[in-house]
Structure formats: C-alpha cells, structure tokens
Amino acid sequence: MFDDGTPIYRQIADQIKAEIMNGSLEPGGKVMSTNQYAAFYQINPATAQKAFRELVDEGILYKQRGVGMYVADDARDRLAADFRERFFERVLAPLVREARQAGIPLSDIIDYLRDQEGALR
Amino acid sequence: MSFTVNLRSVTLEYGAEPALADVDLDLEAGKIYGLLGRNGAGKTSLLSLLAAFRKPTSGEVLVGGEPVWENAPIVSRVALIREGGDFDDTETVKGTIESGQIRPSFDTDYAFALADRFEVPLKKRVNALSRGKRSVLAALCGLAARAELTMFDEVHLGMDAPTRDAFYKELLAEYMDRPHTVILSTHLIDEVANYLEEVVIVDKGRILRHADIETFQGMGATLTGPAAAVDALGLEPLAEQRLGGTKSITVAALDAAARERAAAAGIEVGPVGLQDLFIHLTAPQDRNGA
After folding, report:
1. What superfamily does domain B5-215 belong to in CATH?
2. What are the residue boundaries of the ABC transporter domain, all occurrences included (chain B) (predicted)?
3. Residue B212 in 3-state DSSP?
C-alpha cells in the first residue's frame, strides 16, 4: 500500500489531496475519521491524525469540534495553485535531467510537446 | 484510564551480569509502542519488571504513577502475554479462558468470540494444542484482559502469516475501541511498524534509542552512486557495499545539506526501513561507546 520512501502520514495527506483534486472528495464534504483511516490502512491512528493535522495547517481541511473533518471550500483552488507552483520543479526538472543523460536535445523535447498540444486540440 | 510507565535508574541483576543497567524510560499513556532488541538485550526483563513478575535490584518501576511491585490494584490491570501463555497445560481451553476472570476487567464473551473466530477448540487441553493455536490462545487472553497496560512478548511465535495479520488487525481494533497502553515486543519489525506510534530499542541492558516511528523512518538513508562521488561526501557509513564502480552506503543520519550535495552529485538517496536501521544500530561492530 505504501512505498517506504516518504512517511506514511504524508502519503495519506497526498492521497486526500489527490481525492480533492479528482473530485471524489467535494469541497464542504466530510472526510472519514482518523479511526476509519487507521482501520482501512491498518496503521496507528496517531499516524492518520498527523496527516489530518498537516492538512488543517495547510487550510485544506477544517475541523468541526465533535463532528469531524471537512474539506475547505477553497481547497481545490489552493491545491491547484500549489500543483502549478511545483509543476516545473517536480515534473520538468527531472525530465530535463534525464534527457541530458540520454543525450536528447531540448529542441526534440519541445517539438514533441508541440505535437502533443496539436493532438490534444 | 490507561497507564503510564516510568523507570527510574532501574537495574536488574540475575547473578553478576545485569540484565538491565541503570535504565530510565518514560512511556506516555495510551500509545502503541514497539520494543525492539536482539536476543538477550533485556526486552523480556524489562517487561517482567512492568508486570511485577520480577523486582528490580535497584531503582523504581512505576506503572500508572505507582510502584508496581506487590501492588495488586495496579497489577490486576496489567497484562503481560508471553510466548506459550504461561498456562496450566492440563487445563482445557475453555477452563483457561474462564480462569482469566480473576482479572476485574476480563471480557469472557469477547475471549470466547475470539476463540471461535480463530478456531481454537474449547474442549481440547492446552497441551494438545499446536504451537500456533497455543500462541493464539495466549494472544486472545491478552486482548480479552482489557488491561490498561497490555504487553505482548513475542506472542506471534508459531502463528502463520494470515493469523498474525488477523491478530494485528484485532489488536488495532481493540485499541481504537478502548485506548490503552500497548507494548509489542517482536523480531518481525517491518510487519508491525505501521501499527506503532513510538519505538524503544533495547541493547545490552540499556535503552539505545526511544523516539516516535517517523523519527526512525526518516533517520537513515542509503546512498548509491559512483564510488568516488559517494566517498567524496565524507559520510560515516554503518555499512557499505560495492558492485564494480558503484558504491552503496547506509548511514544512520543524513542532514538536509548532505542530502542536497548527494543529489547534486547524481547519487541516489533511498530510505532505510525500520528493520534495516535496527540491524545497523544494534550490530556489534557498529556500536560506539557502551
């Protein structure tokens, strides 16, 4: 279930973010409880709690005392902005590095991307 | 209510050799702890003190804030489950489960439900059970004790993989249903790692490390790359391997600066699992001091 590179709580946080982005968690919607997450993934509830705490700190989730955790109304906008910000560093930087190692000139990559854009239209 | 654990300068000697030497340890209530250590490191000695099976040679052992030795009100709410279960071998499974009722909080219905689910035959005598079933009986008595401090000492021995999995699942469910302090002593480290909140490593009668699980999981790193580049980092490896011009080293700690230098040098940085880290931390040639 988890790859052991990143801490599990961060993987859970990332997964919740992905669910918000792909629409399976709606803004204003209720998130499963810490114990439900713990039982589902078979992890210590404190680990799930850490994921929630991180998301609350980032403004992605908010807590309603005694009721549960909810997705913030602007969560999707926040996440989209965050994704855009990290896109070049996360996706393009490794691409450029690998292309250099393989001896692929950047112009080839640019041509390829142009073709893709044509195909998408 | 769940129990805290405090050891203050605790020494336990059998004969001349101390099993535990001047140990200080504080465990908060209501967490699941992993107790790791090599054979003979002092895990069972430590647990025996907490269950008041043994009296410390010196120092103080507090459970729920009170000295645990000869303290019946506390001890009756502490459960130490050892491999094999410390049962009367000639008793039936049913009789063994019912004898758990000497504990005020023992949940007999739950114990029978678990026996049914794990297919432990009630009419059989304990000495007629397979090793695996006997371990299951011990484990289910531990769960049904509904204690405030529950300790499982290598209780998984003899259980097959699906049974261990079902046991961990039940342990987690019981813990979430009724938060209490749990200590799991095991050699199957990676198997239980996700269930733990904190880890205590015992080595040669001392506490080697005590930290939350994320600290351990983020602690070590493996670095793999061209041998010259790896050497140029100037890190102190716990272990190293070479394959042609490629070198891989394991380090106990890697700070952000070193991580950056490694990435810049084209060195691949990978995680170290808790079990591997444990192996390196407790390997005799790698220990400094002590």
Report:
1. P-loop containing nucleotide triphosphate hydrolases (3.40.50.300)
2. 5-229
3. strand
ipTM score of the complex?
A: 0.85
* A38/B169 CB distance under 8 A: no
Q: What is the pLDDT of residues B227-239, one digit of tens each?
A: 999 999 989 888 8
The beta-carbon neighbor of B32 closest among A7, A42, A44 is A44
pTM, rounded to two decimals: 0.87
Give the closest-approach CA distance of B213 to chain A in angstroms: 9
User: Shortest Cα distance from B170 to chain A (angstroms)?
Assistant: 10
Q: How many CB pairs under 8 A join A and B?
A: 39
Dump pLDDT digits (tens) for B202-223: 999 999 999 999 888 888 899 9
